[in-house]
Amino acid sequence: MADQRAPDWVIPMMRAGYSARGLVYLILGGLTMSAALWGGNAEGTKGALQTLRDAPFGQILLWLVALGFVCYGIWRFIAAYFDLENRGDEEKGLFQRLALVVTGLIHVGLGFAMASVALGVGGSSGGGGASDWTAKVLQMPGGKWIVGAAALGILGAGIHYVIKGWKKKYKRYIQNNEKTQKLEPLLRWGFVSYGIVLAIVGMFLCLAAMNSDPSSAMGIGGALDYIRGMTGGQVVLGVIALGIIGFGIENFVEARYRIVPGVGHSSDIQSMAQAAKAKAKSTARTAAAS
After folding, report:
1. Contact indicator for 171, 277 with CB cutoff of 8 Å
2. Confidence at residue 129, expressed as pLDDT on a 0 to 100 scale
3. Of 47, 59, 104, 282, which has the fewest beta carbons less than 10 angstroms from its beta carbon?
4. What is the pLDDT of residues 52-78, one digit of tens each?
5. Which residues of the chain have pLDDT under 70?
6. Burial class of residue 254 (count of CB atoms within 10 Å of its CB; 0-12, 13-18, 19+)
7. pTM
8. Phi/psi zone of residue 243: left (φ > 0), alpha (ψ -120 to 50 degrees), beta?
9. What is the spatial distance between Cα 52 and Cα 27, in angstroms, rounded to a whole number?
10. What are phi and psi of 258, to 5 degrees?
11. Within 10 Å of residue 128's Cβ, how many Cβ atoms?
12. Cα(94)–Cα(83) distance, rounded to whole angstroms?
């Protein structure tokens, strides 16, 4: 069971983290839709950060987003330590909690990288691309295995997001109300779309590891360009863009309506999963009575 002694300030930290992620993915989705409708190269997260920095008060916004990503990482650490999501202490639960720690480390790292962009240290585009850092890692002792492990991690994350969206597993953590019900189809496609993009990134990184060829590696922008190059890719890219926008909205929904069982404030709040289960039972009883 989750530890009820989890600090109360975990909630505002969680809200800040999801809000920062939501803003980045909304910008990324908008840039992707622009590429689908009017052409030009699809932008990745670096392009989204550049767009954010160039906006009015962009420097301040970029600092806030950087802080938000660090907050998200700390929220993941706390969720793992106090088991706020009731993962348990069995082998599967411990693995899931370890995954939360890894996610936290990634987001803290991204937060510091964004801060460096805000300071102008990371360059106008936020540093080198995926092929650049892949080339550096491949030159290290055991670099091929490091890149391969990173590739499998990204591919696994992509598959996880697709399954989470397709099977609607996110519904157990989101409060049930009129707004979340209306947004639910967009939330679902958001997870699936983001998972597809991550899976493509992971697959090409796998190729880079297997062939020791850093030019095969690509980031999110490269994956989006790859989608556009497919048959009917412009249409597919537009659909994916809607999904990324949906993923951005999903992060804002989680910022506002996510249920955190381990803090103890949410015992009377019904999740979307609980509402769906209750509705299914009611329908079954009605059908049995008729």
Report:
1. no
2. 60
3. 282
4. 777 777 788 889 888 999 999 998 998
5. 1-6, 40-42, 120-130, 262-267, 290
6. buried
7. 0.81
8. alpha
9. 8
10. -70, 140
11. 15
12. 9
DSSP string for residues in the chain: ---TT--TTHHHHHHHHHHHHHHHHHHHHHHHHHHHHH-SPPP-HHHHHHHHHHSTTHHHHHHHHHHHHHHHHHHHHHHHHTTTT---SSHHHHHHHHHHHHHHHHHHHHHHHHHHHHHTSSTTTTS--HHHHHHHHHTSTTHHHHHHHHHHHHHHHHHHHHHHHHTTGGGGGBB-SHHHHHHHHHHHHHHHHHHHHHHHHHHHHHHHHHHT-GGG---HHHHHHHHHTSTTHHHHHHHHHHHHHHHHHHHHHHHHHB--GGGSS-TTPPBHHHHHHHHHHHHHHHHHH-
Token pair 């990204």 is found at 154
For residue 200, which amino acid is it? I
The single residue listed with the structure tokens 């800040």 is: 16
